[in-house]
Amino acid sequence: RNFTSQGVTTLVTGNCGVSGGPLTPKNKEMFEAEWIGLSQDKLNHWSHFSDFAIDLEKLKKSINIAPLVGQGNIRGAVM
């Protein structure tokens, strides 16, 4: 609601390096610290970005959301 009251119609996410997926054993610990309150089943489920996108699509939203894959996720998954 805060976004729509300011005239925002589209939100681009992930462009600062963090996104909902992919989450792997290598980078999951970082997200557990950053995303306090996110349920453990979501952290276990989003092993691919498409899993995150499917869950995002199911949400009731008042604005458009354009999710990008965060470079931090990719980098953390392979290092």
Provide structural commentary.
With about 80 residues, this protein is mainly α. The protein has one domain (about 1-79). About 45% of the residues lie in helices and about 10% in strands. The chain has 5 helices and 2 strands. The protein has helices at about 1-5, 30-35, 40-45, 50-60, 70-79; strands at about 10-15, 65. Strands 1-2 form a two-stranded parallel ribbon. The protein starts with a helix and ends with a helix. InterPro entries: Metal_Hydrolase (IPR032466).
Q: What is the number of domains? A: 1
Strand order of the largest sheet: 1-2
User: What is the approximate shape?
Assistant: globular
SSE pattern, N- to C-terminal: HEHHHEH
Average pLDDT metric: 81
Beta strands, count: 2
Structural class: mainly alpha
Contiguous helical run count: 5
Uncertain runs are none
What helical percentage do the residues reach? 40-55%
Largest sheet: 2 strands, parallel
Task: Give the C-alpha Rg.
Answer: 13 Å
The portion of residues forming beta strands comes to: 5-15%
The span between the termini is 38 Å
SSE blueprint and pairings:
Blueprint lengths: L1 H4 L4 E4 L14 H7 L5 H6 L3 H10 L5 E4 L3 H8 L1
Parallel strand pairs: 1-2
Observed structural traits:
globular; 79 residues; 2 strands; mainly alpha
Outline of the structure:
With 79 residues, the protein is mainly α. The chain has helices spanning 2-5, 28-34, 40-45, 49-58, 71-78; strands at 10-13, 64-67. The protein has one domain.
